[in-house]
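Aim 2, interim progress: modelling of the S-adenosyl-L-homocysteine-bound target.
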Amino acid sequence: MIDIWERTLDWKPSPQQQELFQRLYELIIEGNRQLNLTRITEPEDFWEKHLWDSLRGVKFLISQQNREDKEINLIDLGTGAGFPGIPVAIAVKNCTVNLVDSTKKKINFIDSILPELDLNNVFATTCRAEEIGRESQHRETYDIALIRAVASASACAEYTLPLLKQQGLAVIYRGNLTEEEITNMENAVEQLGAVIESIEQFNTPISNSDRHCLYLRKVASTPAKFPRGVGVPAQRPL
Ligand code: SAH
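Predicted structure of the complex, ligand included:
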């Protein structure tokens, strides 16, 4: 897959990074025997939908990293079995990643595989996005927040933006994205102190599936009333 990494992300994984991706695959397959972690288990599918897709959303970090040596603090909300956060922690230099999920057994699984991957820049936390966004040791402390396949676009905005520092970036990974969702987002993002910086549309390199990434830039402090209580952002999107 090296040529696809080079062609699509302008990046070449080191032998050590390739080994970690392989090890991650084995650990997920092993974990899947006991836990229902993912339906994506064929090697090529895993590569495309878990590894490539996770990194494509942060292409700007991957391609530029030779020039950047600043420490980056990331959070991945609703990480499930560790996506997109774990591949990002493997691929991006000088980053710390906090993996958050509301399901304890998923975080227990992640805690069990981190020592096997020897990743000392990753932490895992069992918490709801609506709660961690209200904790002072997390609120407005992250440079980048990632969120994939967790909720509607505007609920994702409400989960991620309170956690970002000013000028921080939320990356919302989507499959399809409708005009209506974009219009709703504009309204949500304004209330949360951010702007839609860009929306990227692309296709995955093997199965040619449709993908979108929304990039939200935080430009003002998020009002204290956000995120609203558990369940509210999903039930009554802004
Ligand atoms: N991001 C992963 C998993 C997506 S499945 C991937 O793309 O593969 C959605 C995950 O989000 C589940 O593990 C679920 O437990 C978690 N989740 C859903 N709502 C959440 C919330 N409000 N706060 C924290 N985690 C949440």
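The longest helix spans residues 15-32. The CA atoms of residues 68 and 237 lie 36 Å apart.
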